[in-house]
Specification:
four-stranded antiparallel β-sheet; mainly beta; globular; about 350 residues; single chain
Length: about 350
């Protein structure tokens, strides 16, 4: 924007040609308009450039990927969901491999364990080029990932291993195991959890393993060098979502044919407390649930749309929102009215939170 002030004055002057002077932050132009004896009329124009508009503020948001359709949805608060874009047709992924780092970069791992990233809030994706060889066995395992500092990703595998990358998934380093050697996590059906604290100082991981290792939940304060094992919030439970809240941790379990529960871990009390049951679908509809947190007090549970049982109407997707760290929830209708393929078992979903920054390509 250009702002111009014009003033006119009379002074005793007689000469020829323009006089141009410069002052800090502005241009002063004196133009000789007339010379009539002892009086000269001059005009002063001061031209200033206004300050540029402020940069747009990044808006944090929860993201859900839902199949059928491979569509990514976005919500600032879990209450209103808007479609962003479907994943690329050649990105064949599994339900649990999405994350975002502190720089706002989004990640997804496909079924070949290749990393894809988005720097524009899930509007477009590109495959990351690998640098060097990966740790032995990593390509044969299913991975559950989470994002830490900018370009930092951590992963827990179906074989009980943990991995770290600090270059947006181009190269990886194996860290200390989460589960014992020989642990099995169900291959592509591996159900795990991974989350960084908001300041990036801690990471928590979980894995639903079986013989010789039971389900494991542990936290690290040294980027996977050592792990402190935590008690489970139940017996042989798998995480439908794992995240930090202001008071400690939130762990979602259940769902399917039964109500879901979000359990809260208190750092001060070193104990779990169960919140209210979460069940949007009435009757015996099968409705999968997922949970994510913003690292503070907001916890969102997404429930897939379900086919109505015993002739009842189909149930739409639902979102359950908590602003007290997972103790209480408000149920809201999600963006999918009903399962578009009720006769097929093809529902996969993932959920994560991002701070809304858009770092662009790597």
């Amino acid at each position: 924007m250009i702002v111009v002030w014009v003033s006119t004055k009379k002074e005793k002057f007689c000469g020829r040609g323009p006089l141009v002077g410069r002052s800090p932050g502005a241009f002063l132009i004196l133009v000789l308009l007339a010379c009539t004896g002892s009086e000269t009329v001059t005009t002063t124009l001061t031209v200033e450039e206004a300050a540029p508009p402020p940069a747009p503020v990044a808006e944090s948001a929860f993201f859900v990927w839902y199949n059928p359709g491979k569509m990514v949805y976005r919500s600032a608060d879990g209450k209103k969901w808007d479609p962003v874009a479907p994943l690329p047709a050649d990105l064949d992924n599994w339900y649990n491999a999405f994350a975002s780092d502190a720089g706002g970069r989004l990640y997804v791992v496909d079924i070949q364990d290749s990393v894809w990233t988005s720097g524009d809030g899930a509007k477009s994706w590109s495959k990351v080029s690998a640098v060097g060889e990966r740790p032995a066995g990593m390509n044969d395992e299913s991975l559950f990932i989470c994002g830490g500092a900018a370009n930092e990703i951590a992963a827990v595998s179906s074989a009980g291993r943990t991995y770290w990358s600090t270059d947006a998934g181009q190269s990886w380093t194996e860290k200390t195991r989460l589960a014992a050697e020989g642990a099995g996590g169900g291959g592509m059906g591996f159900q795990g959890g991974c989350a960084f604290s908001r300041d990036g100082s801690k990471v928590v991981m979980s894995g639903w393993y079986f013989a010789p290792q039971n389900p494991q939940l542990a936290i690290s304060s040294d980027k996977g060098a050592t792990w402190e094992v935590l008690p489970q919030p139940g017996t042989n439970v798998a995480a439908n979502g794992l995240g930090f809240v202001n008071t400690g941790l939130a762990f979602a379990r259940g769902g399917g044919y039964s109500p879901g529960i979000v359990s809260s871990w208190s750092d001060s009390g070193k104990a779990w407390a169960d919140g209210a049951e979460i069940r949007g679908a009435a009757g015996m509809e099968y409705a999968q649930q997922l949970m994510a947190t913003d690292g503070g007090n907001t916890v969102v549970v997404w429930q897939n749309p379900a086919k109505g049982s015993e002739g009842k109407p189909n149930v739409p997707a639902a979102a359950f929102v908590s602003t007290d760290g997972g103790k209480t929830f408000v149920e809201l209708v999600g963006p999918v009215a009903e399962d578009p393929t009720p006769a097929l078992s093809d529902e996969y979903q993932a959920m994560f939170w991002s701070n809304g920054k858009t770092p662009g390509p790597i």
